[in-house]
Structure formats: structure tokens, C-alpha cells
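Why do we bother with holo predictions? Because pocket geometry can differ from the apo form. Keep that in mind while you read this record for D-xylulose.
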Amino acid sequence: MAAAFPKISKIAYEGPDSKNPLSFRHYNSEELVEGKSMKDHLRFAVTYWHTFRGQGADMFGVGTAIRPWEDGTNSLKMAQKRARVAFEFMEKLGVPFYAFHDRDVAPEGKTLSESNKNLDVVVKVLKAEQERTGIQLLWGTACLFVHPRYMHGASTSCNADVFAYAAAQVKKAIEVTHELKGAGYVFWGGREGYTTLLNTDMAREVDHLGLFLRMAVDYKKKIGFSAPFYIEPKPKEPTKHQYDSDAAACLNFLRQYGLLGDFKLNIETNHATLAGHSMQHELEVAASANALGSIDANTGDTLLGWDTDQFPTDLYLTTQVMLTILKMGGFTTGGTNFDAKVRRESFDPVDLFYAHIAGMDTFARGLRIAAAIRRDGRLAEFVKNRYSSWDSGMGKKIESGKTDFAELEKYALKLGEIKTNTSGRQEFLENLINEFI
Ligand code: XUL
Ligand code: CO
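The structure, written out:
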């Protein structure tokens, strides 16, 4: 097969002074940060759906992307060729992972068994390409939102036959993820929500989602797939409200259905902001529950209220993300998956490289900056001191659960007025962060 990107060779690290746009200025894969290589810290993944299936269409216009390797069909032959193009791209970019939905990589057939056969054919190519290049699957997932059968949802559909169909599709998607040695498997809600409560039995739908995920866990155990399951929160789009709306809602749902031990979360920036949170808020909620598994790295646009899935190029964002990730001890099975698409106006094949290089360099800088802030220690020291009243005396007693309201009343009566609180120093701390950026 002729190269899809014949003029582009492997992207190399050339350092911050390089003027070569097809080089990394900051992402130096083998450089050690806190004793671990950048490559192992960041575990970058390319998303198949945006990078190889995105055409640059939006609600107002058709696709604009120039993709010379495409023949304009959604045939199985094209799917096999596209898989090879994807690996050429990822190899030249130097990313260790990719992620896909079943229907991104192989076309849906006329029947479920035809779809399964199509998937098997492409999975053979993916497997061979993984072996040839050493690039691995970060996670697989099933597309339960494009086909009209899923208009009312998949596991939360009002139609029990749709639940069954979705179960069969997910069963197959887990099997191929296992076959490809995927490091995880993602459940993103898609249409698992509602567009109007007038026609919705919410309690019943959420119970069905719980049943569905329980069956998925049982099946995973049955076939010996030991990689983690992740839930990816998102509050809306395409539905008005998704049941997995944010990290806190997901954790509560998992707890309610006894699934907390079987899932971690895959947190996405643009989903966090759609939910009215910052990315770091969502990461902290997940990490506090020991449930931060992986991230979908992208960003929204503050002036556009929807899921624009842009490549992350904001150093404050990546610094905050990496501060939380380093604090939790780094990724284990998870990684930094670019669930991001080039703008409709960035239609050249080379824009796919520019976009990923920008995202990777921005995360590399975020990682270095976060490590420098941690090495400096002033931020952590400040936070530690802010809570010092809990380290001894009554604070310590409260934390260890050895007191009660009666004793606290006695204590408070003796206190008189509480000594002035110490300052929160927000502006000082914001400026402190700026020292490192
Ligand atoms: C949609 C989204 C999905 C998931 C995987 O907003 O983020 O592509 O990442 O289904
Ligand atoms: Co995503």
C-alpha cells in the first residue's frame, strides 16, 4: 500500500527552539520526569473516530476534510485500508496507544452477525498492525448512539429488544477489545438519558442501566478480561440529560448498584465544562474516590456552549490536569486519549499532525510544570499548613471519630470566640503557579 503521508517522516523531538512545525518542542518521550519517562506518564492515545472517521461536517454543513486515502465508501475494503493508514499516522506521530468504537473501525452490516463478521475482518488487520508497530489499544468501546435503533437509548431504551441488541453489541465489543489486549473498556452514555420527562420512567431506565453494567461485568469475568471498565461522564448531548452526568453522579450510581469496585472513570475536559465544572474539579472528585482511571484530553470553547472537542493547547489546563494526576500517583492502565478533532477549517491531512503535536507538546509542558511545582513544594506546603488544626488536639480527635456533639459543645463553650482564620491567599497562589508557566 502506498504511504498515506508520503512527505511526512517520524516526528522527532527537536527542543523548544525548533522552528520545524513537524517536530516536538516539548514532548521528549524518553525524558525522565519524577523518575518516569514522559511516554509512560502521558500514555497518549489517538482516537479513531475523530482522526480517521471525522469528515469535518457540522450541523450546518457537510464534511470539508481532504483525506486522499478515502474512496468515498464505508466498505469493508476501505475499513481495512483505513486501519493501515491509521497505523502509519500513529507510528509517524509516535503515540503508544489508540482507542476506537466498534463501528468506527468496521462498517455496520445488514444484520448483527454481518456486523460482527465485518468487525472480525478489521480486527485481524488491527492486530497485525499492533504487532508490527508495538502500538497498543488503550480502550475499546461500542457505538450505541448512531444507528436509529438507539434513538431512545440503548440499555435505557423503552424497548426491551433494543436492550438485548445493545447487550449483544457490547458483548462483541468486549470480546474484540480483549482479543486486541485492550488496556481498558469504556462505557460512555451516548443516548442513555432523556429528551423529555413526559415520556420517561427515570427510575426504571436507571435500573436497566445498572442491570446492563452488571451483566457486562459478569461477562468480562467469564471470559477473563482483566482490564478495567471505565464510565465516561457527560451531562448532555445528544440527550438533554445523560444519567452519567458528572463524576459525582457516576460514583453515586455505581455505589447504588454495587458496581463501585468494578469501574473507574474516564474524565473528559469538554464534558466537565458542559457539566458546569472545571476538568480539575472532575479529576479531583474521581481521584478522591480512588476512581480516576483515564482521561479524554480535549477542550471546549468558552464562547460556544457545546462539545466542540478541540485539541488542548492551554497550559493552565494541562498543568492543572497533571497536578492531579501526579498527586494520585500517575496513570496505571489509563492514559491521555485525544478525544479531539481538527476544526472544520483545518482540512488538510497535515493538520492531523499539527493538532496532535500541539496537544502532546501542551501536555508535556503541563507535566514538566506540574513536576516543577511539586519539586518547589510551596503549594503543597501551603495546603498542608492550611489544615494543620486537624493534625493535633481536637481536630485530630474529630478525624479519628473519638468525640461527639456533647464534648464538642463543652469544648466550644470554653473557646470563646474563634481565633481569626488564616488567609486563603488565592491571588498569591495563582501568581505562584504563574511563576512556573
Ligand atoms: C462523546 C465522547 C465519546 C466517548 C466514547 O462525547 O466523548 O466519543 O469518548 O464513546
Ligand atoms: Co470522550
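Residues 349-376 form the longest helix (28 residues).
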